[in-house]
Every structure is written in C-alpha cells, then in structure tokens.
Amino acid sequence: MTAKGATGNGTTAYGAKAYGNWIGGSWRTPEKGHYPVVNPATEQVVGAAPAATPAEVAAAVTAAQAAQDGWSRTDPRERAAVLNRTAELISEHAAELLPLLQAETGATARVTSALHLPMTADRFRRYARGAVEPAVLPLAPHPVQGSPLAPGGLMGAAAVRRPVGVVACITSYNLPLVNLAGKLAPALAMGNAVVAKPAPQDPLCCLSLGPILREAGLPDGVFNIVTGSGPGTGQALVSHPGIDMISFTGSTTVGKQIAEAAGRSMKRTLLELGGKGAAIVLGDADQNVLKSAIRAVGSVWSFHSGQICTAPTRVLVQRALYEKVVAGLQRYARTLIVGDPVDNSTVVGPLISAAQRDRVEAYIAQARAEGARIIVGGTRPDIKPGFYVAPTLIADVDPQSVVAREELFGPVVVALPFEDDEDAVRIANSTSYGLYDYVFSADTARAWAVAARLRSGNVGINTAQRHPETPFGGFKESGVGRDGGSFGLHAYSELQSVVWAS
After folding, report:
1. Cβ neighbours around 44 below 10 Å, total
2. Closest listed residue to residue 220, CA positions, set 65, 20, 8, 6
3. Tens digits of residue pLDDT in 430-475
4. Strands 26-28 and 268-272
5. What gap in Å lies between CA 312 and CA 298, rounded to an integer?
6. A Pfam family for this UniProt protein (predicted)?
7. Which pLDDT score is estimated for 335?
8. 461-496 as b/e, with b when 16 or more CB fall inside 10 Å?
9. In the prediction, which pLDDT does 7 show?
C-alpha cells in the first residue's frame, strides 16, 4: 500500500496523508474535504480522514445494497477463503499498519503489537471457520391436525439462518481494528454487506482495510467505509432506509439515540455500550487470589490507560481485607511507567484526546471535593506533549457518588469496602451498567453463587482473562444483544422457519 494507494488523495494543506471514503471497491475523494487525526502522544497530525456528507453515505449504502445479494449467494467456502486471506494480508501489512495504529490510538508498543493486529487477524480467521458452520437446524417432524387453514399431516421444518442484509458497523476508538473486525468478519461470514463508520479519533487503519479486503477477493461494494469528525455521518448512516441492521460499540448515551432512530423503521440492533465493572474481593481470598485480584484491577491502568469498557474500575473489598488491597494497588500503581507509547518500557500511555483527559480530570477533582481519599495519582503527569492522566486510585468512595457510578474511561480505580455478600451484590448492581464484573474468592462455589446474583452480561471468577467463544454483551444500559464466537453468527443473521408437508 503506497502513499497514493493508501490514501487515494495525496496530502492535505498541512502535509498529512489524506484518505478518501472507500465506496464500491475504490477510493472516493470527499466532497467536503478532510479533518485532521491527531497523535495523542505527540499532538501532531497523523493523517487526514474524509468528512463524509449524507450523499456520500447514501452512495456507500447503495453500493452495499447492489453487492449484498450476490455475496449472500456465494458458496460459504468462498466467503471463508476471503476471510482467511484477509487475515493473512493484515499480518503481511503489519510493518505499515502497526506504526499508523499506534500513532492514531496512542496505545503502547506492547499493546499494539501483542493485541491490536494479532486479534484483528484472529477474528477474521475465526469467522472464516464460522462461514462454513451449519446454518440449518433441522426440526423433528410433527403430526398436525387438519384445520380450515390446511389439511393435516406430518409436517417437516427447519430453522435457517439468513443474512440480515446491509449492516452499519459503527465502532469505538479504543480498539479500532479489533472492534471493526469483530463486527465485519461475522457479518461477512453470514453473507451480509457492510457500511462501516469508525470513531472519528482514529479511523485511518480502519480505512486501510478497504484495499486489503479487495486484495483478499471481496467483491466490490460488499465492504464500504465512511468517516466524519462529528455526529452527522453516523446519523445519516443510522437513518438511511437501506440499512437493515446497526451494530454499534460506544457510549450508552449515543446507543440510546441509535436505538430510538432504529426503532422508527424496526432496524435490527446490536449495541455494546458502557460499563462500570466491579471486581468483588471476598473476605476468604488467600494470598494467591489477592495477587490475581490486584493484577486484574491494575489492568485498568496498564491496559490502554483504562479506555476499556470491560475494565474493573470499581474494586469492592470485604472490610477485613480492604486496607490490604488498597495498599497492594497503591504499590502496583507506583511501579507503572507513564510516558511515550513508542518506548517499549512504557506501560501507561496517553488518553485519546485533550477532551477525554479533561473529562477524566474533572471526575477526579469532583471526588476529591467530595472528600474521597486520593491514594495515588490524581494530578497531571509532567509530560509534554500528550494527553496524559496518571494512574489514580481513589478510596473511601460513596457508592452513590458520581465517580462510583459513571463510566470514566481512563486510568482511574475507585475502592469501596463492603460488609458481606449481600452488601457486595447491592453495591455492584447499584449502577445503570451491567457489562463485565469479577469475583475473587478462595471458594469458587461461593464466587459462583455471587456471580449468579450480579446483573452483568459477563463475570470473571478469579481472572480477568476472556474466553473467545462466550456470548459477549451487557445487561441494563450496557447494551442489547450478544456477539462473540458462534453467537456472532447469530447476531448478524435472521432466523427463517421453513415448513413442508412430509
């Protein structure tokens, strides 16, 4: 992918590479120009993304509509071959994609190289296998009495997964390629066409998927991608009558707006929204369990600076162990190196933007004003340029305070004591979110019982590790629907019942 091939438009007035919208298998120069994408660590312009107009969004949807029927009738083995080849090409282009991905996201070298690109390729491989999973569920023959509707007889039937049609995939800024792959790959595996709209902060690597998928053999128009710096592009996509389904990852506030707009025309939705994960440390936790709990909660700081919706940003500790866990987290936070994400020794990089940094700092200031203890962090690191927030631990927080209830999306952990299991469950369930919680205990049967009472779509017991085949999604205001593993195939398909007389 040369500079011209990658961008389609050369450079902007400020010298950055300028990308077009990817529509119908080729770059389209944007009618209204570009907007700058900024490196969160250097505050320098990385590239220029297209500011798509409603007409350009409509052109992308039209291209997807024209291509979807043919793609849906393609042999599943051919769809699998395209997805496998896409995974190979992503790995082959790693030398070009990795520095761009790191520059636009601000992710550390370790996270970028070990997670972003490998997981993106893995998701395409997984749904290459998914493309050839059985889509027909035979049902046992059933004797049916005659009626005025039809004669009786032995009726056969099958439930068949069919493509939804044209899917709008709107993704988040924290893991742009991974998140898009998690939507795009199962959608394509099931025979859908896609129009993607990545987050405005870091869309450049997502745009680069256009020519990669074309090289992999995807027919023109099956995958299209448009970008914009404000809400207008997404709104045009969500409201377009040619969109059959909306898959969105992002804030609950925006998710509610999408759900309302989708409801007007009964578009299918898959909404993965905010989280305020609780890590519950029960009083029976031994030394090994405590170490696991501290490492898991510490990931709020060490993994992408807490910009993860599943992060255990609340640590709830039974009172007998409370100060011990707080002290352990304090020691852990002080070992973390904050700095330039290009440096291999850096563990905590910047937040995505100045606006997000200021938002997180405002939450910390409010907690301090309300009398909470700032155990570590709480002040801006002396690092310039860049949008940095120090790893921060806030103790003795009221469960009803804003910092304990709202999603901050930054390297901030709040610690709360509890008295017994009943109290822990009450506090954990007290927010409007329910995406991912954790239970740490030496008694796994007790942890299992606590997990059953948590209003959360996912619960980790003594671990923050994931299982890639589990259904992923949230309770309450953390979203609607599930994806992941074979559940992702279900999410991007409609069930059709086919009935016949035996």
Report:
1. 12
2. 65
3. 999 999 999 999 999 999 999 999 999 999 999 999 999 999 999 9
4. unpaired
5. 9
6. Aldedh
7. 96
8. ebebeeeeeebbbbbbbbbbbbbbbbbbbbbbbeee
9. 45
Q: Would you state the pLDDT for residue 3?
A: 30
| 278-468 shares the fold of 21-273+479-499 | no
Is 206 among the residues known to form the active site? no
Distance CA 432, CA 424 (A): 16
Who's near 373: CB < 8 A, 6+ residues apart?
Answer: 394, 395, 396
| Backbone phi and psi for residue 415, each to the nearest 5 degrees, phi listed first | -110, 135
Residue 12 has a CB neighbour count (10 Å cut-off) of: 17
Using CA atoms in the order 291, 292, 294, 299, what is the torsion angle rounded to 10 degrees?
140
pLDDT by residue (tens digit) across 237-261?
999 999 999 999 999 999 999 999 9
Residue 13 pLDDT grade (very low, low, confident, very high; cuts 50, 70, 90): low
**Tokens of residue 456, six digits:** 């959360």
- 14 confidence band (pLDDT: 50, 70, 90): low
Match 């100045």 to its residue by tokens.
354
Q: What is the pLDDT of residue 330?
A: 98
Question: What is the C-alpha to C-alpha distance for residues 350 and 60, in angstroms, rounded to an integer?
Answer: 34
272 is catalytic: yes
Q: Give the separation between CA 371 and CA 116, rounded to whole angstroms.
A: 39
**Which amino acid is present at 12?**
T
Tens of pLDDT, residues 84-142: 999 999 999 999 999 999 999 999 999 999 999 999 999 999 999 999 999 999 999 99
d(CA 326, CA 328): 5
Q: Which of 161, 230, 234 is nearest to 195 (CA)?
A: 234
How far apart are the C-alpha atoms of 197 and 22, rounded to whole Å? 11
Residue 493: both structure tokens together: 């398909």
Give the pLDDT confidence score for residue 9 in this predicted structure. Answer: 53
Q: Which CATH class is domain 21-273+479-499?
A: alpha beta
Q: Which residue has the tokens 């987050």?
A: 199
Cα distance between residue 40 and residue 34, in whole Å: 19
Question: Domain spans of the chain?
Answer: 21-273+479-499, 278-468
CA-CA distance, 360 to 213, in Å (whole number)?
Answer: 37
Q: Residue 2 has what pLDDT? A: 31
Catalytic, out of 56, 169, 206, 272: 272
224 forms beta bridges with: 195
User: What are residue 458's phi and psi, to 5 degrees?
Assistant: -140, 140
Domain 278-468: which CATH number of 3.40.120.10, 2.60.120.480, 3.20.20.80, 3.40.309.10 = 3.40.309.10
Residue at token pair 């933007």: 353
Q: Which of 309, 361, 407, 477 is catalytic?
A: 309
pTM: 0.95
Asked if 315 contacts 329 with a C-beta cutoff of 8 angstroms, the reply is: yes
